[in-house]
Amino acid sequence: MDSNPLFKRGKNCKLSDEEFFKDRFKRLCDSDINSDCEFLVGCNKEIIKGHKLIFSTASPVFYAMFHGNLKENAVIVVSDLEPKGFEKMKKFIYTDDVNFETYIQVIWTLVTAKKYIIPHLVKRCMDFLHNGTNTYCLQALHYYEYLKDRNITEFNQICHKIIEEKTLRILSGDSFSSVKPETVSWILSFESLALDSELELFNFFEKWALAEAKRKKISPNELGSSFNDLKKHIRFLTMNAKEFALAAKSSLLTDEEKLAIALNMAEFGSTPLPDSLSPSRTKRNFNSK
């Protein structure tokens, strides 16, 4: 027994005999003694070793991988996951415990837990995300897009709540200027936002659109017709005359659109609105904080 390194105490070990025994799977996880499988994780193929039996007890995916009809080799390439997320999953499988140094590690681990169908780890990750919104709120859109690209929807509701309650902080942050058009469309569809007015929302949209135009090399002459799918979410008809006078200075609106808005503000239905404009006269719930 003394030759088994799992039973050897380090010089600085202060655990009781009972605690040392309970800690045995953590030692196995950390040491990789007698490991019989190897994962090459991430784009740099970081090596993470493990034990087929222990992995198989935690996940039907691993069970099929190691014991099913489609057995894989002992060395498995996992190119679509982050090594740190895989390491966190491994620790959870061995010890039923997981800790995170950053919230992006939570996101990486969530993706890993979803891939290998480990619902208890998914729940643990979601608990961390629920409880940490004030800490990572400025990164929420980045996390949302990262998970959406991987067809993971568990974070959507949390992100929606963050945007509703911290709209000004989110839209003022540098990350908003670089989000995808689909994300902008999603935000512009919200009924409740922590802003002062529709004009303020339009101003943030304009800031994003100008940054997107620069990225895609859209000329100033093309701005008025380049964002119609997004512009149609702005409720210009809920603005007052002073607000629209400011919005009308934007190069995102064509002369035809400006005229149509002005005429419909004076008398709704007096002229048809272009498809690029919203006919809604229902105000959003604005609650600036």
Automatic annotation (TrEMBL):
Highest taxon, organism lineage: Eukaryota
Example of a GO biological process term: neurogenesis
Entry-linked SMART domains: BTB
CC annotations in GO: cytosol; P-body
Protein's name according to its UniProt entry: BTB domain-containing protein
Organism whose genome encodes this protein: Laodelphax striatellus (Small brown planthopper)
Domain BTB: 35-102
InterPro entries given in the database record: BACK, BTB/POZ_dom, SKP1/BTB/POZ_sf
Annotated coiled-coil segments of the chain: none
SUPFAM superfamilies: POZ domain
